[in-house]
Amino acid sequence: MNLAQTAEVEEFRAEARDWLARRVPSSPLPSLETAEGFAAHREWEAQLHADRWSVVSWPEEYGGRGADIVKWLVFEEEYWAAGAPGRVSQNGINLLAPTLFDHASPQQRARVLPSMASGEVIWAQAWSEPESGSDLASLKSRARRTDGGWLLSGQKTWSSRAAFADRAFGIFRTDPDTPKPHQGLTYLMFDLRAPGVTVRPIGRLDGKPAFAELFLDRVFVPDEDVIGEPGQGWRIAMSTTGNERGLTLRSPGRFLAAADRLVGLWHGHGDPSDTALRDRVADAVVGARAYELFTWANASRFAAGETIGAESSLNKVFWSEYDIALHETALDLLGPDAELADGEWAEPWVFSLAGPIYAGTNEIQRDIIAERLLGLPKGRR
Amino acid sequence: MRFLLTDEQSDFARTLRSLLGSAQVPAAVRAWADGDAGPGRALWSRLAATGLFALAVPEAHEGAGLLPLELSLGLVELGRAGVPGPVVESAAACVLLSELADESLAKRFLPGLALGEASATLTLPGGSPYAPDADAATYCFTVSQAGVLRLAGAPAGPLRSTDPARRLSLPPADGGELLAEGPEVTRAAGVAWRWARLLTAAQCLGVGEALLARTVEYAKQRTQFGTPIGSFQAVKHRLADTLLALEFARPLVWAAALSPGPGEVAAAKLAAGEASYRAAMTALQLHGAVGYTEELDLSLWLRKARPLRDAWGTPSACRAEVLRSLTPRRR
User: Fold this and answer.
1) Touching check for B1 and chain A: CB below 8 Å?
2) Which of A226, B33, B195, B302 stands the most exposed, by the fewest C-beta atoms within 10 Å?
3) Which residue of A has its CA nearest to B315?
4) pLDDT value of residue A104
5) Smallest Cβ distance to A381: which of B3, B233, B244?
6) How far apart are the first and last CA of chain B?
7) d(Cα B203, Cα B184) in Å, to the nearest integer?
8) Nearest residue in chain B measured CA to CA from A371
9) Are B231 and A379 within 8 A, CB to CB?
10) Which residues pair with residue A212 across a beta bridge?
């Protein structure tokens, strides 16, 4: 057992660090949840892509560097330590791309992945429906067979960044007569500007307008945009949400960088006699380290050929609650200035509040942990 | 980078677990608490056969070398089984004596400790004045604030701990045989202290795992309102949180064993100690009234969790150490 990286990994780290030091914008970009910020972040994605830093873990033929999980984690650590912008392409890169690698045809990959890597096409996820959040299998939006493809009808909601994105992916009910709700679902991709799509932005808690609901009225999707076999959408989607909650949704690099900034804030604003607050700063430092090490252990399991299953729920609950605690500590350190909405910590604090809700609520994650990792009996939710 | 146990390390832990699983440890714990160290000593000699006690002793003195990771894995298993006695303190005493470049002291004490024929307890400067299990240990070492190492004379006691299986004694401040003194002793005591903290963290992890496992089993069997209480979401979520805390403490313990710097060790102790104590509180609540009884073996771990959380560094002391030992990251 060791935590030392190979010379090759350290070389990769040095190259990433050097590139980021030269290219990270000197002042923060406007929020990617606004129209202006979306455009600026799209431009940043193009810059990353030009030197093959936008999707380091992808094969080279799609614009990546073929980096393994260790190098990906190292890249993320450098990325966030350098203060680089948030990733507007993250829905596509983290959620859709792993699905395409696992389930799509070579033609689909060749058609979809390059424009995702460059930021030319930005993807929104379209999972949730007004009555289907945690109980996703209960979704009602339909896809009906038509000549050469499918016609989508229904409503999707809580779709991150859909107000400005180009395309979306989600699952739709193609067979309403199956005995179980998670059968008869199909995974497909569609154009957010296609005839029949209405995008209605929903202001988020932080006032940013990128969140949206989607109204779909006989939207045509060609067969080539169906991923995997029709009717297999649930199985395919679950492999994606596993990715989401597992390693790739929140890399430790982000929290290591945030904990580091928090320690700086403590040295600048902290009252040494306030040991309660001091203890919370220490907890944030330990939490970031614990998350980092937990991730390295999982990465080692991957490298050894193992897979991660329900353990990804541990990950999701941990980072989402950690994220809030860290930001709350920063706000408490700031005192009256914490209220200023444009401060360095206010926006990420509001953003952190969504963590326990999305990607499967933490109540659902705890049920998964209890039932699948501890073997407790299923019960009424 | 391979942050996973090797096959040998996993095998070693499994061997200990299976040995302890069949060793009727609870009976030994209860006897130990009543002042009869016989069954506990018998258990220790079985553990010695696995090489456990050699893991904090250099090879030159019958040891296996100083192997904090393997010893930590061992302590997780000892914590899980609830093994009584000053295991942590014996190992820390070995480290202390190994760190002193004093061949005659090493020759005199280390081989017996490495083979498990002898045991030791100790007090170190800045720590608790109470030596655990001095009445059962072969040796009781003390290091004073001024850096004086002594083999203490017969200590007074024992005093009752909230964990009956930890029998506390107050070694006489200046009594006993003078073994060594000076800055070298103070330095060696610092290293021994970090080992004691690390190994206690590992022991806490095992105690927490035992508490969780027993509570999960209970929640599956105990029914109320016609259904197992383990099917209630409120019960499930407390147990899920217990697992979460333990699973995120574990890699901190591994990392601290790999590189036992003050900050890493403090982080591990903080996380494992808190996780274990929370596991105890959850175990007590979910067992209900039966958990509040001495008859149930659960009480052996319930009463251990709090003293171990505070031994060799309270959470507050560990948090302060974490912040003190931070090296600023690159900005």
Assistant:
1) yes
2) B33
3) A279
4) 95
5) B233
6) 24
7) 28
8) B236
9) yes
10) A159, A201
A13 and B CB contact within 8 Å: no
Say what percent of chain B tops pLDDT 70: 98
* Sign of the torsion formed by the C-alpha atoms of A165, A169, A170 and A173: positive
Joined together, the tokens standing for residue B151 give 């083999």
DSSP A48: H
Contacts of range A17-25, beta carbons closer than 8 Å, 24 or more positions apart: A17/A78, A17/A82, A19/A51, A19/A53, A20/A78, A20/A79, A20/A82, A20/A84, A21/A82, A23/A47, A24/A82, A24/A83, A24/A84, A24/A85, A25/A85
For residues B219 and B225, the answer to whether their CB atoms sit within 8 Å is: no
SS (H, E, C) B179-248: EEECHHHHHHHHHHHHHHHHHHHHHHHHHHHHHHHHHHHHHHHCEECCEEHHHCHHHHHHHHHHHHHHHH
pLDDT digits (tens, 9 = 90+) for A224-277: 999 999 999 999 988 765 554 556 668 899 999 999 999 999 999 999 899 999
* Contacts with A, B 3-32, CB within 8 Å: 3-6, 9
What are the tokens at A250?
A: 């929140």
78-97 in B: which are within 8 Å (CB) of A? none
Q: Say yes or no for a CB contact (<8 Å) between B248 and A3.
A: no
Q: Is the pLDDT of residue B328 over 80?
A: no
Report which of B316, B311, B25 is spatially closest to residue B161, judged by C-alpha positions.
B311
Average pLDDT over residues A168-192: 95
Nearest 5°: phi and psi at B51? 90, 5
Active site residues per annotation of A: 244
Of the partner residues A6, A363, A373, the one whose CB lies closest to the CB of residue B243: A373
DSSP output for A257-292: HHHHHHHHHHHHH--TT-HHHHHHHHHHHHHHHHHH
Instruction: Starting at the earlier edge strand, list the strands of the sheet with B131-132.
Output: B131-132, B167-170, B156-160
pLDDT, greater one: B171 or A359: B171
- Does residue A317 belong to the interface with chain B, where contact is any CB pair within 8 Å? yes
Q: How far is CA A310 from CA A236, A357, B88, in A?
A: 16, 18, 34
Distance CA B240, CA A370 (A): 5
CB atoms within 10 A of CB A178: 13
Average pLDDT over residues B15-24: 97
Please classify residue A277 by burial: count the beta carbons closer than 10 Å to its beta carbon, then call 0-12 exposed, 13-18 middle and 19+ buried.
middle
> A379 CB contacts (<8 Å, ≥6 apart)?
B227, B230, B231, B232, B233, B236
Q: In Å, how far are A89, A105, A186, B252 from A230, measured between CA atoms?
A: 26, 14, 5, 45
Question: Cβ contact (<8 Å) for A6 and B328?
Answer: no
ipTM for this model: 0.96
The predicted pLDDT at position B331 comes to 39
Structure tokens, A219: 């939207």
CA distance B81 to B165: 13
Residues A122 and A44: beta-carbon distance below 8 Å = no
Tokens of A295: 């991730």
Chosen for mutation from A1, A320, A364 (greatest number of chain B CBs closer than 10 Å) is A1
Q: Residues of A with CB below 8 A from B219's CB?
A: 376
| Nearest residue on chain B to A21, alpha-carbon basis | B331
